[in-house]
Amino acid sequence: MCNQCNYENLLNASDLNATDNRLRVLEVIGNNSYPLSAADIFTTLKRTCSINRVTVYRILDLLVERGIVDRISTGGRAFYYGMAPNENHHPHPHFYCTRCGQMDCLTQDSLNVDTKALWKTFPGRIDKVEVRVDGICKNCMK
Amino acid sequence: MCNQCNYENLLNASDLNATDNRLRVLEVIGNNSYPLSAADIFTTLKRTCSINRVTVYRILDLLVERGIVDRISTGGRAFYYGMAPNENHHPHPHFYCTRCGQMDCLTQDSLNVDTKALWKTFPGRIDKVEVRVDGICKNCMK
DNA sequence: CATTCAATGCAATAAATTTGCATTGAGATT
DNA sequence: AATCTCAATGCAAATTTATTGCATTGAATG
Ligand SMILES: [Mn+2]
Ligand SMILES: [Mn+2]
Ligand SMILES: [Zn+2]
Ligand SMILES: [Zn+2]
């Protein structure tokens, strides 16, 4: 749940018109405390407005391309989406429950990843380092 | 490329009959120096023997379930497969080129991930920690 | 008022994987 | 030997997730 980010500003700063649909998608992602799948986002939006599934996919592509939203891979087949790192959102690892598909945010320092050496030596371009922990969540353990 | 692993033993140790197809899938994965997609594996096998795509998927599921092979997520839509950590294969991060889809193994120490704290405090079951670097590979940079 | 174009919708398609059911063939059982 | 059984595999259809092509709309611009 993010109270700091101004979604309209984020869109404008990336030269994107702040349309209702874009704002809605961004709010669903930003107001949630863990990453969501495109299906999750679509289902949530459908409850309060009329929007097409394809529009959600297209907006997500756009937001990812502009670096506003992060596309996060899971141990499953669907991508999940969360706010990309910015002044209010620091990079952090995620936990994916292979039983229920719920994804959680882990604290920034729960896993300590030192990427300095790699950045120096890697002979290509590095865009992103993704750390994901897979397992069974507390709820599903019972 | 692995010369240490005895694939037949690995299968037997997991109570799996060492069928020709299972050995072939495991050899393709083990003899390769980077993870492959199911399609890669299928294409490779089709060149020298007659095997069904579904059989490949089923064998991969089985090998993953038994912990012989690791299912590795990418920034793309398909899973990749590599030898699971064992005495000859230590856990390590991977690099995924978002342009050509090639996945590379990074050295165990190119990224230093400290998971001790998490293991102590996490209120669920942890099966796996996956670290993936996304970007553009040396070849695709040109 | 006419034109343009970004945003969206709708239907069809694609890619990757999974499922259901049939077939096969190597032992085990009679 | 004939029959039975069952794990392994094959083949076709279905599922899941995402993408593409083309039509529509409506606000901004001239
Ligand atoms: Mn997160
Ligand atoms: Mn590897
Ligand atoms: Zn769970
Ligand atoms: Zn590449």
Write up what this structure looks like:
The structure is a homodimer of 142-residue chains. Chain A has 142 residues and is an alpha+beta fold. Chain A has a single domain, classed as Winged helix-like DNA-binding domain superfamily/Winged helix DNA-binding domain (Arc Repressor Mutant, subunit A). Helix content of chain A is 37%, strand content 23%. The first copy, chain A, is built from 6 helices and 7 strands, in the order ααβααβββββαβα. Chain A has helices spanning 7-13, 20-31, 38-48, 53-65, 116-121, 138-141; strands at residues 36-37, 69-72, 80-83, 94-97, 103-105, 112-114, 125-136. In chain A, strands 1-3-2 form a 3-stranded antiparallel sheet. In chain A, a hairpin with a 7-residue loop joins strand 2 and strand 3 (80-83). In chain A, helix 2 (20-31) crosses helix 3 (38-48), helix 2 (20-31) packs across helix 4 and helix 3 (38-48) crosses helix 4. Chain A is globular, with a radius of gyration of 16 Å. The two termini of chain A are 27 Å apart. The model of chain A has no long low-confidence stretch (mean pLDDT 94). At the A-B interface, strand 6, helix 5, strand 7 and helix 6 of A face strand 6, helix 5, strand 7 and helix 6 of B. One zinc ion is lined by residues 97, 99-100, 102, 137, 139-140 of chain B. The first copy, chain A, binds a DNA duplex (30 and 30 nucleotides) through helix 4.
